[in-house]
Amino acid sequence: RWLLSRHNWLWSVLIVSLAFNAGFGTTFGVRSYRHHCRDSRHGEDASLASFHDELNLTPEQDGPMRAAKEKLFEQLDQLDRGVTTERETLGRLLTASETDKAAIASQLDKIASLQRQVQQYVVDHLLEEKELLAPGQHKAFNEIIRRRVCPCGGHGPESAAGHSGGEGACRVP
After folding, report:
1. What's the CA gap between 65 and 132, in Å, rounded?
2. Among candidates 30, 55, 59, 35, which has minimal Cα distance to 45?
3. Residues with Cβ < 8 Å from 93, sequence gap 6 or more?
4. What are φ and ψ of residue 167, in 5° steps?
5. CB under 8 Å, gap of 24 or more: what pairs does 55-60 form?
6. What is the three-class DSSP state of 54?
7. 18 closest CA partner among 116, 117, 105
8. Of 19, 69, 132, 142, which is least surrounded by CB within 10 A?
9. DSSP reduced 3-state for 129
């Protein structure tokens, strides 16, 4: 009987840990992206200005790029509110007098789905920006992606075997 109750306790701790990590990860990701892209002193997109400078955008490209960024922020704000709501529901499920593991698992799936949507929106945004570029700007865009998205700025750590994983998108050839 003691072993069984300890087993249930461990599962409960694991579920709570997963729930908080999932919620925290999404919230942290959205807020980090916003912080990275906005200068809090001026409400301007400081990183965006640097991004635009590096790409040497024309005025015709700058407007659509800024509109796309604003659309992304709106989508991320909406998802952030959704994650908050789903985490509140998860909290109620975890603290209910009767534990419903199926409902908890379903709630974790909902949170994971929202996290996936965050990633998809960001990727869609990057692809939308890439389409606005002239062919000569693609090299600079790829370098920015390597620095901002890929681990270690695009160079990546060496594998455990002591050799690189090849020349993928995040590897500088």
Report:
1. 8
2. 35
3. 100, 103, 104, 107
4. -110, 70
5. 55/133, 55/137, 55/140, 55/141, 55/144, 56/137, 56/140, 57/137
6. helix
7. 105
8. 142
9. helix
